[in-house]
């Protein structure tokens, strides 16, 4: 009898403690268990993505890319392979470099899409400054196209769809992100099977608050890579997100033709030809008439005539649906 009283008293005591600690008890056939009260997710802040540099292991690292401000290395973070963009020590105190670095970090924190390279964290409190993203084993599209010497239409359409999906997400209003340097080197393959692409490198990107869908942003200057540059950028005229559509057309051309647009000209000369109204010639038999038409619309001289990426997606899906389904249309074929 006494033991039963203690048991009851202990049970009451436990329940009283649980109420005071906001803990719920579930009584069931499998016995009672404690479940903590649901905690709301924390608001995003710097602590969520600031990485202690001691967590990065560079013992087996290798350089996978270089730029004027730093280098990109394959490293390990908490046992996971990652890509680390590391600012050169000599530039760690450069005000403009730091400003650009912080701009890229603040931009990447906002991005979440299957066709956009995923930001994982950054080192901003210590030097050298570092930006950490997922590591994609397939390398970049530039190298892949160099090795393949051109893709068949089936592969090119699938690649184009992945790029367009990522860009449609970035161009979503009212917070539009203009990439401004869309080119094969900044498009990455998830793996060596080349079955999935992601858009990366947002060092030159701009986040623009759009008041209405017809806004033209007051940005000028030769921003980006000459060979894929829209004519309005080369001419230092006002431009909008359609500069990325132009660059997309040049990439689509390169995927099928197997060589960069105006490959027999230096990049600056190629951009000058484009600004004068010239466009590369279609030669490959893999260039379906529908794809030629889409490419022509995307690199139109008048940026207002270029389709949006949502429209491009619809066109590509339709072209894919109507394309031949012969077994020889292998995605890895040339």
UniProtKB/TrEMBL annotation:
Limits of the Protein kinase domain: 58-319
Q: Which CDD domains match?
A: STKc_MAP3K-like
On whether Kinase is a keyword of this UniProt record, the answer is: yes
One GO molecular-function entry: protein serine/threonine kinase activity
Q: What is its EC number?
A: 2.7.11.1
Q: Can you state which reaction this protein catalyses? A: L-seryl-[protein] + ATP = O-phospho-L-seryl-[protein] + ADP + H(+); L-threonyl-[protein] + ATP = O-phospho-L-threonyl-[protein] + ADP + H(+)
Endpoints of the signal sequence:
none
InterPro entries noted in UniProt: Kinase-like_dom_sf, Prot_kinase_dom, Protein_kinase_ATP_BS, Ser-Thr/Tyr_kinase_cat_dom, Ser/Thr_kinase_AS, Ser/Thr_Kinases-Pseudokinases
Cellular component per GO, a single term: cytoplasm
Q: Which Pfam families does this one have?
A: PK_Tyr_Ser-Thr
Task: Alphabetically list the UniProt keywords.
Answer: ANK repeat, ATP-binding, Kinase, Nucleotide-binding, Repeat, Serine/threonine-protein kinase, Transferase
Q: Does the keyword Chaperone apply?
A: no
Which positions are annotated as binding ATP? 85
Similarity comment: Belongs to the protein kinase superfamily.
Q: What is this protein called?
A: non-specific serine/threonine protein kinase
Natural source organism: Gossypium raimondii (Peruvian cotton)
